[in-house]
Amino acid sequence: MSDLSETNTICACCGNTARLQQLQNSTQTLCCWCFNRERLRINTETSAHWPTDIELDIAEHYPDLVSPNCASLRPTIGPGWSIILDQFLRSVEADPKFAKSPPGHLQISDVKTTRVGEISIGWHWYFDWVEPYEERLEKLSAITCCLCGHQGDIVRQGNRSEPLCGFCQMPTRKA
Ligand SMILES: [Zn+2]
Ligand SMILES: [Zn+2]
Fold this sequence. Notes:
alpha+beta, 3-stranded antiparallel sheet, 6 helices, binds zinc ion
């Protein structure tokens, strides 16, 4: 999976301002409307429910990042955030400092959505070198739709704490 660009460019389909997005098996520069049209088209073709069917279990996929007696840790966050959370966990494990540290030195206790609509990682054990990764994840979550995973076109409504893209914000989606 390539790193997502922070530069605004143009949607490949309609010419709206857009960023590079992660789709099922590719990255494309798409606005939230074209992103969701493409996402739903691929889901229909492949009978998938991406990103809902990612269902990231941290204990299962990253056993070295939870306590040894933790059998399952499924974060209570929107499916759109599973992608950026997975990228975060992979980056932490890939850091040379992780390999040099004793086992069990980093333990995630839970993952939540804060009241301001950002992702928040709780730790049993924590080391300072993780902080830049965590800050990047928090910033990214604030601009990532927690339902579909689109980045950059967040609509915030009143006190609503969850970031949603224009497509997922549409009243018809709530029916
Ligand atoms: Zn577009
Ligand atoms: Zn969305």
